[in-house]
Design brief:
This protein is 31% helix and 17% strand. The chain is α/β, with parallel strands linked by helices and 684 residues long. It folds into four domains: 49 residues, Phosphorylase Kinase, domain 1 (2-Layer Sandwich); 265 residues, Rossmann fold; 189 residues, 3-Layer(aba) Sandwich (Dimethylsulfoxide Reductase, domain 2); 121 residues, Barwin-like endoglucanases. The strands form six sheets. It has a seven-stranded mixed β-sheet with strand order 5-4-16-15-14-6-7, with helices on one face. Helix 2 packs across helix 20 and helix 17 crosses helix 19. Its cofactor is [4Fe-4S] cluster; Mo-bis(molybdopterin guanine dinucleotide).
Length: 684
């Protein structure tokens, strides 16, 4: 077989990959030089994908309890148990928990079943934990969840501000692009991150702000922009709604004190911003994974709208997604807070979706967001749940509570590639899913670029596509007409048609020109970007009056830089691992980078807690505790510690970060604040 063009299954950069099988379960991997997202480049994780496609640990057959079952037995049982729960307790007694690892076609069918046919909004996704605050900020400012930038903007910017993003490790090919731009045109780089990460090491200016003080920093910068005549009066007058009193109510803050940074560094930041109108502010989990994530996002967007640094080359607020298809999930409606195809839950939108689907019912409103969903499960309110391609027993905040929830749910279905995960231990039914190299569908990356994931490996055992399993259950629940898809191409066509259905320009997401693609055209479909390079270049926003909105943001004591004297626990990724290591853990090369989970801590803080470099320490929060090896480093702020997210019960007896963060969450998006948990530490 010659090389197959597909897309990397890891981060939201969405790099094109050419995979050439070299044996039954081996393949040579190289970057796709024709893919606009990466132009042939790959990072270490993408490069070593060929080491991760063996069958070790794979789930190859449906299981009911501990017994192997046929697909018919498993699907009949799921349909019967979901139907029984709905009959006895109503549609909101069942739920679906999806994942940014799923393809858009899988997501689309699951969303259609839950919202249109079962009639509940209870489908949410692990993307809730990843970037739902950016979604909420986009909707508040633009009227729709539209990312206003493209990677091309990174090439054209004069100033790039990275906020809460260790781009060099977490989005390495974007990082390579930034570095190339800096070399070619002297682009300035500011990194805003409490840690001096590998990314921050390379910056022209690093602001190691106190955790969760970003709102103060960007509100202060907006006030400074106003003071120094940097506002774009014409853009504000023509394109932006400004609430009455917005400028008068802008708080006067002692930003350097609140953010705990040197006044001269703050001044240098302000000066760089004033001197470089072509500014991209790229933000990621350090912004989103916060109890103020939505406000942080809007503080960044306010700045760009008010200074007119948006909708033109090299300028804009740019949220980067973590997972390979978080964006595709947002598009089809995989979040409990979106109906479908970027529609909300107004009567008109619900009616439109129901007529498009020709469905027997439609959900009454938004469903439970991830943490609320698991809390409802713990209280016995959810009688049946289907979990697909994710491991909430590890990844949810307060993971111990998530396990209580799973144990309390009478019927748990898990679709996964892996035979035994921390979550599947709680499953009554396990369904064997296709893995990367076997799946067939599409993903959307951080810059709204839709790419094909194409298969190049034969499906092993009895593995089947996730969309097929969902459609089969739909049919067995009596929904004969909505789920007769012939394959991923027919699902994509239907989704594309839905984005254009009675749209008439009211929504930026419109793929309706793809609704008539034949199967062969779908198979050959080249990567394309919906909304174009700059969706707001025409200076119109998808709101009722065509204007974006400045969002007033209240200053809260929580922005006031950690008056709490406990340590602050921050979490994040290692360069060469992905999520809970079910795939990257199979690569001997990737495992070389970091062999064990470390707790990173400043030398002064380590000394005051009696910790030695290389020794062991127990990190304790209100939720739980875990043991880590100590790494003493001046890259940490004092009284803060950092641990990686990857290790689990399955991989290790120690370093189980999932046990530590609490479930405090943003009141608008419902996204948990993983980056700033009160903690203590002691030698072990
Ligand atoms: Fe894959 Fe992301 Fe690396 Fe690209 S940057 S190869 S998408 S992990």
């Amino acid at each position: 077989m010659s090389g197959v063009r597909t897309t990397c299954p890891y981060c939201g950069v969405g790099c094109g990959v050419i995979a050439t099988p070299t044996g039954e379960r081996t393949a040579a991997i190289k970057g796709d030089a024709d893919h606009p997202a990466n132009r042939g480049k790959l990072c270490s994780k993408g490069t070593h994908l060929g080491e991760t496609i063996g069958l070790e640990g794979r789930l190859l057959h449906p299981m009911i309890g501990a017994k192997r079952a046929s697909w018919d037995e498993a699907l009949d049982l799921i349909a019967a148990r979901f139907s029984a729960a709905i009959a006895e307790h109503g549609p909101d007694s069942v739920a679906f928990y999806a994942s940014g690892q799923m393809l858009s076609e899988d997501y689309y069918v699951a969303n259609k079943l839950m919202k249109g046919f079962i009639g509940t909004g209870n489908i949410d996704t692990n993307s809730r934990l990843c970037m739902s605050s950016a979604v909420a900020a986009h909707v508040r400012a633009f009227g729709e969840d539209v990312v206003p930038c493209s990677y091309d903007d990174l090439d054209a910017a004069d100033l790039i501000i990275l906020v809460g993003s260790n781009t060099a490790w977490c989005h390495p090919v974007i990082w390579q692009r930034i570095e190339a731009a800096r070399k070619a045109r002297g682009t300035k780089l500011v990194v805003i991150d409490p840690r001096r990460t590998e990314t921050a090491e390379c910056a022209d200016l690093h602001l190691a702000i106190a955790p969760d003080t970003d709102v103060a920093l960007f509100t202060g910068l907006l006030a400074e922009a106003q003071r120094r005549w940097q506002l774009d009066g014409r853009y504000l007058a023509e394109c932006v709604s400004v609430p009455a009193g917005f400028w008068k109510d802008l708080p006067k803050l002692d930003v350097a004190r609140i953010c705990d940074i040197a006044p001269e560094d703050l001044r240098a930041f302000y000066d760089l911003f004033v001197a470089h109108p072509r500014t991209v502010t790229l933000f990621s989990q350090g912004v989103n994974q916060s109890v103020r994530g939505t406000d942080k996002g809007n503080a960044v967007i306010n700045l760009h709208l008010a200074t007119g640094r948006i909708g033109k080359p090299g300028a804009g607020p740019f949220s980067i997604t973590g997972q390979p298809n978080a964006m595709g999930g947002r598009e089809v409606g995989g979040l409990a807070s979106t109906l479908a195809a970027h529609m909300g839950f107004s009567d008109a939108e619900r009616d439109r979706a129901q007529r498009f689907w020709r469905s027997p019912t439609i959900c009454a409103g938004p469903g439970l967001k991830a943490v609320d969903l698991f809390n409802a499960m713990a209280r016995g309110k959810i009688k049946a749940v289907w979990i697909m391609a994710t491991n909430p027993a590890v990844s949810m905040p307060d993971a111990r509570m998530a396990r209580v929830a799973l144990a309390n749910c009478p019927f748990v279905v898990v679709s996964d590639c892996i035979a035994e995960t921390d979550t599947s231990l709680y499953a009554q039914v396990k369904l064997p899913a296709l893995g990367w190299g076997e799946k067939d569908g599409t993903v959307t990356n951080s810059e709204r670029r839709v790419s094909r994931q194409r298969p190049f490996l034969a499906p092993p055992g009895e593995t089947r596509a996730d969309w097929w399993a969902v459609a089969e259950v739909g049919r067995r629940m009596g929904f004969a007409n909505g789920f007769d898809f012939a394959g991923p191409a027919s699902i994509f066509r239907e989704f594309a048609a839905q984005t254009g259905f009675e749209n008439e320009g009211s929504r930026a997401l419109d793929l309706s020109d793809k609704a008539g693609l034949g199967d062969a055209d779908y198979d050959a479909m080249a990567p394309f970007q919906w909304g174009g390079v700059s969706p707001f270049a025409e200076r119109r926003y998808p709101t009722s009056d065509g204007r974006a909105r400045l969002v007033p943001i209240a200053f809260s004591p929580r922005d006031d830089g950690g008056r709490d004297t406990r340590l602050r626990l921050n979490t994040g990724r290692y360069r060469d691992q992905w999520h809970t290591m079910t795939r990257t853990g199979l690569s001997p090369t990737l495992s070389q980078h970091r062999r064990e989970p470390l707790v990173e801590i400043h030398p002064d803080t380590a000394r005051s807690y009696g910790l030695n470099d290389g020794g062991l320490a127990r990190v304790t929060t209100a939720q739980g505790n875990s043991i880590f090896r100590v790494a003493i480093t001046s890259s940490m702020r004092r009284r803060e510690v950092f641990v990686p997210i990857h290790w689990t019960d399955k991989t290790s007896g120690a370093g189980r970060t999932g046990l530590l963060p609490g479930d405090d969450r943003d009141p608008i998006s419902g996204q948990p604040g993983f980056k700033n948990t009160p903690a203590t530490i002691a030698p072990f």
